[in-house]
Amino acid sequence: MIAQVSGNVAALGPTSAVVETGGVGLLALCSPGTLAGLRVGQRTTLYTSLVVREDALTLFGFASADEREFFELLITATGVGPKLAQAALAVLSPDDLRIAIAGEDLAALCRVPGIGRKGAQRIVIELKDKINAVGLVAGLAAPTLPGQAVWRSQVTQGLVGLGWAQRDAEAACDEVEPLLVEQPDLGVPALMRAALLSLARP
């Protein structure tokens, strides 16, 4: 597998970039966001995933390893091919996708061209349990505490994504809410940890 390509950008197209490495120009299909950060003649590193089909070997390029890993997770879902997975990452960041899948936010997933309600439901069913717990919590991080409805929603979605029942997640939020009276600047990650501790108590 070709996991990473480093070299000078030899050419840019509407949907692809050619990176010259070791005297060979490798063409990688990239999202608009990734292409926007590239310049012909400048050195770059693309995190790549090689998709093997009977009639083609296609290299997909990403600006970060996180994007590549989520791309490879998405294409394990039924009905999600490489192009649809790349479109999803063009519309939503990996963290946004984690939260949408863990929280069963079908409306967010349906923002991706090519994903309808049934497709979104299938993605949630097949990938919810595979979402990396550490990545999910990182995706909920915020430098300052958002409004009450926002933090409760994020912590609840995070707990559900980790396997807790919706009612247990909501009860945990009720338990940690008094902490905000003493420490109003608590962020979502700290509230998430407190909620997990409350759920771990017998």
TrEMBL record:
<keyword id="KW-0227">DNA damage</keyword>
<dbReference type="Pfam" id="PF14520">
    <property type="entry name" value="HHH_5"/>
</dbReference>
<dbReference type="InterPro" id="IPR010994">
    <property type="entry name" value="RuvA_2-like"/>
</dbReference>
<keyword id="KW-0963">Cytoplasm</keyword>
<dbReference type="Pfam" id="PF07499">
    <property type="entry name" value="RuvA_C"/>
</dbReference>
<dbReference type="InterPro" id="IPR000085">
    <property type="entry name" value="RuvA"/>
</dbReference>
<dbReference type="InterPro" id="IPR013849">
    <property type="entry name" value="DNA_helicase_Holl-junc_RuvA_I"/>
</dbReference>
<dbReference type="InterPro" id="IPR036267">
    <property type="entry name" value="RuvA_C_sf"/>
</dbReference>
<comment type="subunit">
    <text>Homotetramer. Forms an RuvA(8)-RuvB(12)-Holliday junction (HJ) complex. HJ DNA is sandwiched between 2 RuvA tetramers; dsDNA enters through RuvA and exits via RuvB. An RuvB hexamer assembles on each DNA strand where it exits the tetramer. Each RuvB hexamer is contacted by two RuvA subunits (via domain III) on 2 adjacent RuvB subunits; this complex drives branch migration. In the full resolvosome a probable DNA-RuvA(4)-RuvB(12)-RuvC(2) complex forms which resolves the HJ.</text>
</comment>
<keyword id="KW-0233">DNA recombination</keyword>
<keyword id="KW-0238">DNA-binding</keyword>
<dbReference type="InterPro" id="IPR003583">
    <property type="entry name" value="Hlx-hairpin-Hlx_DNA-bd_motif"/>
</dbReference>
<comment type="function">
    <text>The RuvA-RuvB-RuvC complex processes Holliday junction (HJ) DNA during genetic recombination and DNA repair, while the RuvA-RuvB complex plays an important role in the rescue of blocked DNA replication forks via replication fork reversal (RFR). RuvA specifically binds to HJ cruciform DNA, conferring on it an open structure. The RuvB hexamer acts as an ATP-dependent pump, pulling dsDNA into and through the RuvAB complex. HJ branch migration allows RuvC to scan DNA until it finds its consensus sequence, where it cleaves and resolves the cruciform DNA.</text>
</comment>
<dbReference type="InterPro" id="IPR012340">
    <property type="entry name" value="NA-bd_OB-fold"/>
</dbReference>
<protein>
    <recommendedName>
        <fullName>Holliday junction branch migration complex subunit RuvA</fullName>
    </recommendedName>
</protein>
<keyword id="KW-0234">DNA repair</keyword>
<feature type="domain" description="Helix-hairpin-helix DNA-binding motif class 1">
    <location>
        <begin position="72"/>
        <end position="91"/>
    </location>
</feature>
<dbReference type="Pfam" id="PF01330">
    <property type="entry name" value="RuvA_N"/>
</dbReference>
<feature type="domain" description="Helix-hairpin-helix DNA-binding motif class 1">
    <location>
        <begin position="107"/>
        <end position="126"/>
    </location>
</feature>
<comment type="similarity">
    <text>Belongs to the RuvA family.</text>
</comment>
<dbReference type="InterPro" id="IPR011114">
    <property type="entry name" value="RuvA_C"/>
</dbReference>
<feature type="region of interest" description="Domain III">
    <location>
        <begin position="145"/>
        <end position="202"/>
    </location>
</feature>
